[in-house]
Amino acid sequence: MKKLMTGNEALVRGAWEAGVLVASAYPGTPSTEIVENMSGYQEVYSEWAPNEKVAMEAAIGASIAGVRSLAAMKHVGLNVAADPLFTFVYTGVTGGMVVITADEPGQHSSQNEQDNRNYARAAMMPMMEPSNSAEAKAFMKEAFELSERFDTPILMRMTTRACHSKGLVECGERMAQPPVKPYEKDAKKYVMVPAHAKLRRAVLEERLQKLKAFSEETPMNFIEDNGSKIGVITSGMCYCFAKEVFGDEVNYLKLGFTYPLPTKKMTEFCKGLDTIYVIEENDPLLEHEVERLGFAVKGKNTFPAYDELTPDVIRKSVYGDAFESLAYDKAKVVPRPPALCAGCPHRGFFYELGKRKNVMVTGDIGCYTLGFAEPYNALDSCVCMGAAFSTGHGAAKAFEQKGEHTRVVGVMGDSTFFHTGINSLTECLYNNSKTVSVILDNRITGMTGHQENPGSGKHADGTSATAIDIETVCRALGATNIRTIDPNNLQTVRETLDWALTLDGPSVIITKWPCVLKKFSEDDKARFPEAFKTKDVVDTEKCIGCKMCLKTGCPALFIDRETKKAGIDALQCVGCGVCEQVCPTKAIGREC
Questions:
Q1: By the 8 A CB rule, do 2 and 171 touch?
Q2: Ramachandran bin of 330, using left for φ above 0, alpha for ψ from -120 to 50, beta for the remaining angles
Q3: Is the pTM of this model over 0.70?
Q4: Sign of the dihedral defined by the CA atoms of residues 377, 380, 382, 388, in that order
Q5: Is residue 21 within 8 Å of residue 98, measured between CB atoms?
Q6: What b/e readout covers 341-360, taking b as 16+ CB neighbours within 10 angstroms?
Q7: SS3 107
Q8: Nearest Cα to 435, choosing from 385, 400, 475, 386?
């Protein structure tokens, strides 16, 4: 049976057919849909972990205990999970384990553009790169077999287009009896004290030699000879891009098993070619290997060093022109920058915070990162998950050392707090930081599409879970100056910020209001009985067209071209009331 699947869906199908029993992940574009889809397969235990390191460790534990497992994350998530991964490559597996890294050339939803193929080389672990959905499913099944055959975790490197584009996938049945292995104590293999680690280092080197031989013979690496004197060496989604540009007019060395590389096959391919193109997104890893083998290539001297190598980009780099497309006046295209949704609970807080003078605001990764933009201008930095409080702490100490009186406010969301924000807050509390740490609790992991987290009260499959209370956690860490507020009440926000900024020690503000797009649980309905049940309307007789309401940044608000007075889009408005409180003439109120 064939089905149309995204690459992420195909990965899940392949893992399910291969008998995987445990899957753990932290959501992050473009990897989020992996565990979302896996939770639909009842035979597999699937979970959202607090962060990628914990997800990796859970999958490692499942492998050691004797079952097939996987951990999934976006590219920056592998940075968080690298610590256990590097050591697990030393120990090897019991049950097969696959680590999925979803890289993002082009930085569509990420704070950097990194090439996680480097991790395979640094950790000395085998890596596979599917180029389409069919390969994603097939490679996953193969990966579990290879993991157990070579006693190693496997890195499955995807990219945004491979994750999200769709293709036909031949679906099979799940293994009748998933392969499980008995757990046996083996301290020399799994307890990585230096004496044991030195022994495993030698085992790792022997494994690499076997993997090199496998790389030469596996059909995942193949030569497509079209009788041309021009050759293209590529891997992953770039193979599809290159085929769209060159068709069957060139020869291809298509690499699917990309660490260790098949150097003999690469040499065989390059001999006799007049021109060799190496097409790879981001770092010139394949290019450097081909050059090391003694061949001149057209790589980063021909193609861009960053961003996606789409067919248009490849064609323009090689031929000087792009594919034909419809002509249009780009000047008439209205820019649509991302914005907080109408009714977003972060709006009222940022509206007030942005007015503060002599305050540095350290931000974090989430929807609320948009607080940097107009009209709020309320964020000054954003580095990585969980960095807001600890970055703010360092800044505050620097201001103290310089004798300056700038205050620091750190801002992060609830899911980010559970991810790595607890450690970040501990830094502030332990070192008596004169910072204000704000946790924007919108009751869900919002930016990646509403995945559950330890504070939401639900598991990945929607079943009830223990909801960890953020204020209780903060108090347990030692925080004493804590207030939990409704961020839609601007007076309360103002008073709370005034209170926190007058303190000499650390303080915590928790804004608690659900995401406007969140599907309410029974607990939400009980806790927020009035949420999103009314709408705001404008009394045009009272409106003076001052545009003060637009300074809240709500997309439901507009100025009528004819009357020059404010209006509210009833389809977007949810009655949060922020604009009501801003209007100087009280022209905005709740509908009857």
A1: yes
A2: alpha
A3: yes
A4: negative
A5: no
A6: bbbbbbbbbbbbbbebeebb
A7: coil
A8: 400
What the block records as the tokens of 515 is 């995401």
How far apart are the C-alpha atoms of 573 and 579, rounded to whole Å? Answer: 11
pLDDT tens, N- to C-terminus, the chain (592 residues):
899 999 999 999 999 999 999 999 999 999 999 999 999 999 999 999 999 999 999 999 999 999 999 999 999 999 999 999 999 999 999 999 999 999 999 998 899 999 999 999 999 999 999 999 999 999 999 999 999 999 999 999 999 999 999 999 999 999 988 899 999 999 999 999 999 999 999 999 999 999 999 999 999 999 999 999 999 999 999 999 999 999 999 999 999 999 999 999 999 999 999 999 999 999 999 999 999 999 999 999 999 999 999 999 999 999 998 888 888 898 888 888 889 999 999 999 999 999 999 999 999 999 999 999 999 999 999 999 999 999 999 999 999 999 999 999 999 999 999 999 999 999 999 999 999 999 999 999 888 989 999 999 999 998 999 999 999 999 999 999 999 999 999 999 999 999 999 999 999 999 999 999 887 777 777 778 878 888 999 999 999 999 999 999 999 999 999 999 999 999 999 999 999 999 999 999 998 6
Residue type, 291: E
Phi, psi dihedrals of residue 535, rounded to the nearest 5°? -130, 155
The pairing of strands 2-6 and 166-170 is antiparallel
260 upstream amide cis, omega within 30 of 0: yes
Q: How far apart are CA 454 and CA 487, in angstroms?
A: 21
Cα 8 from Cα 34, distance rounded (Å)? 5
Q: CB under 8 Å to 194, separation ≥6 — which residues?
A: none
316: Cβ–Cβ under 8 A, 6 or more apart, which residues?
Answer: 322
Question: Measuring CA to CA, which residue among 447, 461, 434 is closest to residue 28?
Answer: 447
∠ CA 88-89-91, nearest 5°, is 60
Euclidean distance between CA atoms 157 and 135, whole angstroms: 12
Closest CA to 411 of 508, 314, 483, 481: 508
The number of CA neighbours under 13 Å toward the Cβ of 107 is: 8
Residue at token pair 């989020």? 32
Smallest CA-to-CA distance from 422 within 479, 482, 368, 359 is with: 479
CA 149 to chain centre: 31
Catalogue the E-assigned strands of 499-572: 507-512, 536-538, 557-559, 566-568
Angle of helix 263-270 relative to helix 194-217, nearest 10 degrees, comes to: 30
- Note whether 436 and 500 are within 8 A (CB): yes
